[in-house]
Write a structure and sequence with these properties.
Strand content: 35-45%
Number of domains: 2
Oligomer: single chain
Structural class: mainly beta
Order of helices and strands: EEEEEEHEEEEEEHEEEE
Largest sheet: 4 strands, antiparallel
Shape: globular
Distance between the termini: 38 Å
Radius of gyration: 16 Å
Length: 219
């Protein structure tokens, strides 16, 4: 894992790549079919972001559960973003590999792969659940939150997400670029970049100006 700087946002240790995902849904339930890629197989470092449903399948509660569900031998580690310090908590499942932290609704995670794996996770989103997106000093160091994008959200791109949260409350939305292990940033302001599409099963950084209890608009 290499150390990189979130330009204009924060310093945090990560190497990341997003992969494509396909999902099928029925009402509020859905199934993620996601390729989690190892280094050299669509990912520069083998690190992928993963957004699990609010209500996960039975037995999928911790980082250890997630590694075993993906297939333990294929996974190097699972990481949780700590907003209070803009750092990552790592769990490897090996000796001295840290604590198997809980998986929480609305929070994305990083999964670093040793072997590319087609991963299926089932569950449902809760259309009434409010996620706290914290501004600096409101439980977050820099105002950056790692948001697990919902399957049934109506906000289809970064601009739509900012407007759904409340445009004036959001500084920017960021996603990973696999080829360079950097973040693409959209601010919605002048010279603020291109509004990229959002995909269920992927997580995004949302930097807040104001702390908001956010209930996503769903279809």
């Amino acid at each position: 894992m290499t150390k990189r700087t979130f330009v204009g946002v924060m310093a945090v240790t990560l190497a990341a790549a997003l992969t494509g995902s396909a999902l099928v849904a029925s009402n509020m339930g859905f199934k993620i079919n996601r390729t989690l890629s190892a280094a050299g197989a669509g990912s520069n470092s083998g690190t992928n972001t993963l957004a699990l449903p609010d209500n996960r399948q039975s037995g999928l509660n911790t980082a250890e559960d997630l590694m075993r569900d993906i297939t333990f031998a294929n996974v190097s580690n699972v990481q949780k973003f700590l907003a209070a310090s803009d750092t990552l908590q790592t769990y490897t499942g090996r000796k001295n590999g840290g604590t198997a932290f809980a998986l929480n609704a609305g929070e994305g995670n990083f999964v670093k792969m040793l072997t590319s794996t087609a991963y299926i996770a089932v569950g449902s989103d809760n259309p009434t659940l409010a996620y706290t997106l914290s501004a600096a000093g409101g439980g977050s160091n820099s105002g950056t939150n790692f948001f697990a994008y919902n399957y049934h959200q109506t906000a289809a791109d970064a601009e739509g997400l900012m407007r759904d949260i409340g445009f004036a409350n959001v500084s920017n939305v960021q996603k990973f670029l696999a080829a360079s292990d950097t973040l693409q940033t959209y601010t919605g302001r002048k010279n603020g970049g291109t509004s990229f599409p959002l995909s269920p099963g992927e997580a995004y950084f949302v930097k807040m100006l104001t702390t908001v209890a956010y209930t996503p608009s769903h279809y």
